[in-house]
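Lecture 7 notes: from sequence to structure.

We start with a single chain of 147 residues. Read the sequence below before looking at the structure.
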Amino acid sequence: MSIDNLNKKILKCLQQNARQSNAEIGRQVGISSPAVSERIKKMEDIGVIEDYKAMVSPFDLGYQFKAIITLRAFMGKLKPFLEKVKTYDEVINCYRITGDENIVMEVILKNQKHLEVFIDQLISYGETKTQIVLSRVVKQKEIKPIE
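Now the structure, written as tokens:
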């Protein structure tokens, strides 16, 4: 399946508001609701559309800290860490990266003590560096298909 101009328009509609009905999307892009539904299903099946979720503010849920933590894994500790990191509720994003560090994580924490306890869990896997997030400058953007 190719991502033609019609699929790009459907994706744009979903990125603006994933809760709108297929009928509404169809009106915006000029096709029927069943045709929108079929195209969305195909894009889900091939992995173009990965997920639907509500974006929630961790601060409004009582978390006082958001931090970026990098980890330089000790010899033989990277693979065990890659499994363990999936179990940490604090980790909201985690990436394996190139460079001096192996991992970068975005984490949310209740308070300073929670941060200390969390870092204590990480240090058995490697050296950490922590930066506290002060504010978000760019909100997650829509991803535009490559032309």
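The chain has a mean pLDDT of 93. Keep this in mind for problem set 3.
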